[in-house]
Amino acid sequence: MKILVDKMRSIVLWPLLLSALVAAVSIAANGENTSTASKKIPAKLDDRTVICNVVQDSHSQEAIKSLEATLVATLEKKFDQLTEALNMTAFHGQSFTSCKEIYAKHRSYGNKGYLLEMDSGKVPVFCHMTNSGLGACGGGGWTLVMKINGTKRTFHYDSKLWSTKDSFNLPGGKTGLDLHETKLPTYWNTRFSKICLGMKTGQQIKFIVIHKSASSLYSLIADGKYRATSLGRNTWKSLVGSQASLQSNCNKEGFNAVSGDYPHSRARIGILGNQENDCHTCDSRVGFGTGGKHDNSNTCGNEATHSPDNGNKHIKAMGYILVQ
Questions:
Q1: How many domains does the chain have?
Q2: What is the pLDDT of residues 184-203, one digit of tens each?
Q3: Can you tell me whether residue 324 is helix, strand or coil?
Q4: What percent of the chain stands above pLDDT 90?
Q5: Residues 174 and 143: beta-carbon distance below 8 Å
Q6: Could you tell me if 322 and 191 lie in one domain?
Q7: φ/ψ (deg, to 5) at 219
Q8: Range of the domain at 312
Q9: Separation CA 318–CA 180 (nearest Å)
Q10: What is the pTM of this model?
Q11: pLDDT (tens digit, 9 = 90+) per residue, 90-147?
């Protein structure tokens, strides 16, 4: 409680001090202008005197505007700190293992980082709490698991991060749906019945949902065994939008989807396509944690060559994986 009181004292005092400073500068500036106006104005002012007065007035106004901007920014920051302090006080003595649990008891809280109880202790995890922003996934409290940058090899299909209980860039796990890659302990700690998958390409971001129950995402992926889903090729393509492209055959989808012949396409989560009527030499894919022909550096997004249905594509996306 003492920490909360100290936070509130700081939150209240800083804006008051800044307000007083702005007021003092404003009074000084206005007083100077009033004093100048009350003096007897010379019959004739040379150009240098006029310019000097204008510059002085301009500098005063700039100083006031700068202080006002500082005050607004400080108020916003302190308000956020107060909200966070109140939230933590509301959760005092409570322990949550998922964002869904928090949502069920505290629906009014927003999309941001919350402390969740993991096997290693409390970890800040981004929770999406509102009913909008995740498209087909809807609301209800979504727990972030991973963020994948398709231009980097961090989460390539062959990365050990898929098969180990090692986190990656924990600070990136509380900052929302941005460009910071992360793998959180929620990968092996959080039970779920639904998975929300999102891809950001350019300025657009699309989401799909997989209805699948498991003790964790780790339990579905780490052993490398193929586990099928049945979303259909059009649903997977919707992650990329109108630019998406896949070959017509194979359509092997799910977790640890791999072509029969190495080193053709593979995906930790996604779908594969082939122009031949089998899954041996797949040259196209849409997915997360991908690799293989024909662009092995594309680790999240859409890769398609050899007669796909919407032309050759090499689209690298920012991927988001959340569970509920």
A1: 2
A2: 999 999 999 999 999 999 99
A3: coil
A4: 69
A5: no
A6: yes
A7: -65, -20
A8: 95-324
A9: 9
A10: 0.76
A11: 455 688 999 999 999 886 679 999 999 999 999 999 999 999 999 999 999 999 999 9
